[in-house]
Amino acid sequence: MIFTETPLAGAFVIALETRDDERGFFARAFCQNELAEHGLETTVAQANLSYNHRKGTLRGLHMQNPPHGEDKMVRCISGAIYDAIVDLRPGSPTYRQWFGVELSAANRLMLYVPKGFAHGYQSLTDGSEVLYMVTQFYTPGAERGLRWNDPAFGVAWPLPDPILSEKDAAAPDFTP
Predict the structure, then answer these.
(1) 2-12 b/e with 16+ CB inside 10 Å = b?
(2) Mind spelling out the 3-state secondary structure of 141-152?
(3) Distance CA 117, CA 146 (A)
């Protein structure tokens, strides 16, 4: 696994380190030892799948409040998405800053999202499918949603007029 730190402290883009031959390749997609070497959480409590029928579907911005905060490892396994994160850790040097990256079945990148970050993505293709590995179990009542286009963050989503759930469309602006 090849770890590249993003401009947001503690968040990484992770690429596969492939072993190629005439058949294709083999690569480690998750390794507790390699995550630990980078000071990252190694527990996976749950793996979740999200499927999007249509290009332009936007999910987010979401997080779980403490003490139920979760680290996420997000990979697009079919199609392509634009994945965005916002650092909401008070006292962080990158507090309220955002970062985005394209994740796709073709580039096989994964985004490591630390707890205390809001997370969302927009589907860039019809039929995108996203795999999340998370370090905490989903806790009803601990979830928090923030408006996808909150001017406090200024996330530059790639596609106009996103397809939103009622819940995401009604999410509030950020208040510290």
Answers:
(1) eeeebebebbb
(2) CCEEECCCCCCC
(3) 11
- At 14-54, the pLDDT tens digits run 999 999 999 999 999 999 999 999 999 999 999 999 999 99
Q: Catalytic residue among 82, 95, 132, 138, which?
A: 132
Catalytic residue (choose from 38, 62, 68, 119): 62
Q: SS3 for 154? A: coil
pTM above 0.85, yes or no: yes
- Residue 123, classed as helix, strand or coil, is strand
What does the alpha-carbon distance between residue 62 and residue 77 come to, in Å, rounded to a whole number?
Answer: 20
Is 62 a catalytic site residue?
yes
Residue 68 tokens read as 């139920």
Task: Check if 119 is active-site.
Answer: no
What stretch of H or E contains 35? helix 32-37
